[in-house]
Design brief:
Blueprint: H1 17-31, H2 37-43, H3 48-55, H4 63-72, H5 77-90, H6 95-109, H7 116-123, H8 127-135, H9 145-151, H10 158-170, E1 174-176, E2 183-185, H11 194-218, H12 235-257
Antiparallel strand pairs: 1-2
Length: 284
């Protein structure tokens, strides 16, 4: 159908199959004005309106159509497998499924692309990466991972401590001070694609919640603060309180930045979730 060769859009650079489809479509369209949604839809036995809704996120893509699109865009076997895994990841219904398919996506991605984002994603995999980063803000780490590992509660292994420091340095989240004998934090923040980032953030939050549950029994009351409120509230009231929590988080960070006599690392969890179903306003 094409009279010229379209620029090949590397699928391994993408973590959202819809974004890749839109980019690949535009690349083909540049070399052939007749390449259209209607043409693609006809090739995969689908109407163009449905295809438009899939690309817009209003509908999901089924397995048969995914294979058809792989053929339309002349994907190799490896690229096709990656595309199918992306579809499953992007359309997963819960965190368990997202984790499962994300691991497959990253495995298939392999050495096809190496970006800083992949190292950034790793930061969210383990709870102690964030803890080690904060430790290095005040703890005089001398390169001995054994002592650093034992400073955390619960303690981690020396190898985990060593890997954490390397990850933080590779990401530019910590750096050596001019004297070469200690570290300092940088202002660099983790920022990456929302779909993949959300999976690791959820995993991190889950790990931190588990630590919080253990600390209730293992940490002396004088070293912790636990409280809770059970509230009946309207949707607007819920949103108002979420906004208040957001402001409070900013206030906490500002207060911590001014603290010059740091001696330890603490975890502050915010949990605000429903323990009933909604009643009224059209709800059951």
């Amino acid at each position: 159908m094409e009279t010229a060769t379209a620029e090949r859009v590397r699928i391994f650079e993408y973590l959202d199959y819809r974004e890749w489809l839109r980019s690949a479509y535009q690349a083909r369209k540049k070399v052939n004005v007749h390449f259209s949604y209607r043409y693609i839809a006809g090739k995969i036995s689908m109407d163009s309106g449905t295809l438009t809704r899939i690309l817009g996120g209003q509908r999901n893509l089924d397995g048969e159509a995914a294979l058809g699109l792989a053929r339309v865009f002349n994907l190799t076997d490896h690229e096709r497998d990656y595309f199918q895994a992306l579809v499953l990841f992007c359309q997963a219904k819960n965190s368990t499924e997202k984790n499962l398919f994300l691991e497959k996506v990253l495995r298939l991605r392999g050495s096809k692309v190496k970006t800083l984002d992949e190292h950034q994603y790793e930061f969210f995999r383990k709870w102690y990466y964030a803890a080690v980063r904060e430790m290095l803000n005040f703890y005089p780490y001398d390169g001995n991972p054994n002592k650093l590992a034992k400073m955390l509660r619960p303690a981690i292994t020396p190898q985990e401590a060593k890997d954490a420091v390397k990850l933080l340095m590779d990401n530019g989240m910590v750096e050596m001070k001019a004297d070469g004998g200690s570290f300092q934090l940088t202002e660099k923040l983790i920022s990456s694609g929302e779909s993949i980032r959300s999976v690791f953030v959820h995993n991190l939050q889950s790990s931190m919640s588990e630590l919080g549950a253990k600390a209730l029994f293992e940490v002396d009351a004088a070293e912790r603060d636990y409280s809770g409120l059970t509230l009946s509230i309207s949707p607007k009231g819920f949103q108002d309180l979420k906004d208040m929590i957001k402001v409070f988080r900013r206030d906490v960070l500002e207060r911590v930045r001014k603290d010059k006599d740091v001696t330890g690392v603490y975890q502050m969890n915010f949990q605000f979730f429903p323990i009933s179903r909604q009643h009224g306003n059209g709800a059951a």
